[in-house]
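User: Structure please.
Assistant: Input sequence and predicted structure:
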Amino acid sequence: MTTSDQPLPPRPKHLPIAPKAIPGLRRLPLADESRPVDQYWRPLYAVWEVTLQCDLACRHCGSRAGRTRPDELDTREALDLVQQMHEMGVKEVTMIGGEAYLRPDWLEIAKAISSRGMELTMTTGGRNLTEDKARAMKDVGFRSVSVSVDGLEAMHDALRGVRGSWRAALQSIRNLKAAGIPVSANTQITRPGLTQIEETFDLLVSAGIHAWQVSQTVPMGRAADEPELLLEPYQVLETMSVLYRIKKKADAAKVRIWPGNDIGYFGPYETMLRGTMPRGHMSSCGAGRMTLGIEANGAIKGCPSLPTKDYTGGNLRDASLKDIWERSPKLRFTRDRTVEDLWGFCKTCYYADECRSGCSWTSHVFLGRIGNNPFCHHRVLEHLREGKRERMVLATPPEGQPFDYGIFDIVVEDWPEDELVRARELAKTAEGFLLHTERAAAGIRERFEARAKDLPEEAVHE
């Protein structure tokens, strides 16, 4: 059997599940002054990792969450950041972790956000989101909470590293709804979980969600340790077809579908999936233009997902949020990027100037730099016309720190003959999966259920 035919193997032993994070980067250079373009763009949406501590041990966690950072902001510093975000014009703040509710002062921080008129939301694994916590969240002003559910029970528990995490996530949805908080869900698409996405969506609709965000797993953090979790670029054919099928059901159920910035681009389903966006389709990366990422130790990035060592623009202990936003070279890259910064297929693409290689996070954690993105529906279809496909091969493994990544090579190859026929049929009809995916899926559920009993009931971070 190939790797993707098997249940997930034991975790790699050469790295701890949750390493002790090194202190954040400090005293980073800032430009002498801000430019008009830096003052034009404002961080309308902020995602704030309030702690790296976590009660799960997810195999695909990009931040390798588990342990508290050694230098996390104290309460006074966190409340000062809330005021700075308000002064910068932030409209919405999403609290994340690790797991945000594990920070002792999380409700105090949350109340400070909502009391300043910023929309307060959260993304959670829901492992220990009790009825009492849900009621307290309602009291401090949470407007919506997104609960992570990555598949059916055995698949989800295997990916999240804790037995019972799936049931706890669904219970957290019930707890939040009982408290009067609207609930959405988010799902990461992995290679072994791909064929369960439709059933997972149906389950979430029955649980009463109002919106669903879906993204693909990319090789950052623990996911970079296990390439068998990752989709291949040519599997964009399958993911987009799945989302096309789900969108029809979502519209009937009045559930909003929100494909992540790492999904798709400019294929035949773009208007259906992203027609409500300002331009009616996906546009280029918004990091450092409309989005803001904050790590628990005060590190500022243009997007919360971007690798820490490459994209930290400054630390709140050294400079104000405004100065970092306007004067850090690390936050200016999308403000200054042109087609000349692209490379590979993306540089010659018809959509090059509009897209500019899409999601910077996806490009960088696969290839070590931005400007070329093989996980693109238009690109996959263009290769398919020629009977070609792209595949990723790990060349350099990750080092084992939060937000680290490996380096992959792109291999361009001919489609296998039987798969080429199926791929072209899938591109036309959006029905079914590739032959290999169907063969692998036949036994995945049974094998995961057999392994589920061996999972720990509490997160193990060693």
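The longest strand covers residues 388-396.
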